[in-house]
Amino acid sequence: MAQTITPAAAPAAIPPTSVVKEPWYRVLYIQVLIAIALGVLLGYLYPEVGKSMKWLGDAFIALIKMMIAPIIFCTIVHGIASIGDLKKVGRVGFKALIYFEVVSSIALLIGIIVGEVVQPGAGFGADVTKLDAKAVEGYASKAASDSTVAHILGIIPKSFFDAFATGDLLQVLLISILTGVVLTGMGKKGEGITHGIDAAGQLFFRIIGIIVKLAPIGAFGAMAFTVGLYGIGKVVDLAWLVGTFYTTSLLFIFVVLGGIAAVAGFSIFKFLAYIKDELLIVLGTSSSETVLPHMMTKMKRLGASDSVVGLVIPTGYSFNLDGTNIYMTLTTLFLAQAVGADLTIGQYATIFLVAMLTSKGASGVTGAGFITLAATLAAIPGNPVPVAAMTLVLGVDKFMSECRALTNLIGNGVATVVVSRWEGELDREKLAQVMAHPFSIGTDISDHSPDAEPAPTTIR
Q1: Could you read off the pLDDT of 32-46 as tens digits, one per residue?
Q2: Which end of the chain has fewer CB within 10 Å, C or N?
Q3: Using an 8 Å Cβ cutoff, are 174 and 155 in contact?
């Protein structure tokens, strides 16, 4: 049973004022765990039925995605306008981008180093002439059209509202930053508009609060479909690659992000416990976008300032994709080893630079990492690894996408705390208070209003 203790007004302590028992089956992360287990069981025992459940996962992700663009717009615009100082906006943005690029580079290098040391594709002996290129034609054609110039032009929407219609995060970021900057310069004339945007943001957060209650259904459908379509045996076939990727991601989380967290004054283990609900939803849906609003709320309640959260979390979903970076370099080396290609130093450098560029905008949607992988392979000089080689990992990419999304999510959470501290706007007292009891002090995941009062403290 769960006991709920309402926090007192004083921020330094949380003395109990009332106790309300909550049945265990109403706790969202327990519901998601049960749903994932049932989905795996259904897909394994009745594959055809499991495959027919795909629409449940798709529907949940679609419901979340329809709210992401307006939430990001309202959050960034209100954040920039409320700061009122464009120099500070630029300073926070610059610090965030520096952090993103440094940590992303580390992730790319770790993928290359592990790929060279472990050699997951060595001895695979894949015959390039027998690979079915048709299976990845869609990914290859999309990657081929994504040149550097096309990538830059793609950031500009056809119209102001087209960014909302397509849901392209980079386009939404562009118009959000422009709108926030203009409102800052409008003075009192812009205050009414800023207030209206803030009110709209609260509305969208509350809608998300309703949608997220369907997370167990979405997780059930997604897992049932995955296991039903690919079968558990697919993972066994390429277990060495999948295992290497998961191990590398864990190494990055606990060593790199853990070290960064320790310097920032908190434990990565306690941080993971604090965001356990979000991690389980991402595990079930393979998309970090499904918990973007939740993470923004939790980072604020962890002690990060509103202005930093409003800028770092949304931009991090496009510029700070640690899991995707590890995946691209590690998988590229796996495919090169599998087809017997010997890469030169220049080709390694190209992989690093191209992966750094193509990863931007792979915003956590299932399959985005696979498209960026195709773009990376196509850009390697001499084409030593044909894009058709991607068919070797097509069957297990769904399982790897879950790890990509989880690593991306954790990386963005850590980045928010670090940048907030870097800016001198981290409430260390609140951070210490939450980290002291990460399992018991948190938020009700269904309450995402950024201006809402802190949710009752739950002890389980």
Answers
A1: 778 888 988 898 888
A2: N
A3: yes
Domain that holds residue 319: 23-459
Q: What is the pLDDT of residue 106?
A: 94
- Is residue 14 one of the residues assigned to a domain? no
Would residue 256 count as lying in a domain? yes
- The answer to whether 415 and 312 have CB atoms below 8 angstroms apart is yes
Q: What's the CATH number where 198 sits?
A: 1.10.3860.10
284 occurs within a structural domain:
yes
Give Cα 52 to chain centroid, integer Å.
26
pLDDT of residue 455: 41
Alpha helices in 1-53 (DSSP H): 28-45, 47-51
* CB neighbours of residue 458 within 10 Å: 18
Number of domains in the chain: 1
Instruction: Answer yes or no: pTM beyond 0.90.
Output: no
Q: Tell me 7's DSSP state.
A: P
CA pair distance 74, 71, nearest whole angstrom: 5
Residue 12 lies in a domain: no
Confidence of residue 449 (pLDDT cuts 50, 70, 90): very low
Strand (E) or helix (H) holding 161: none
> DSSP secondary structure string, 49-101?
HHHTTHHHHHHHHHHHHHHHHHHHHHHHHHHHHHH--HHHHHHHHHHHHHHHH
Q: In what order do the strands lie in the sheet with 2-5?
A: 20-22, 2-5, 457-459
Q: Could you give the C-alpha distances from 227 to 233, 304, 380, in angstroms and in order?
A: 9, 39, 33
Which of 420, 353, 359 is CA-nearest to residue 381?
A: 353
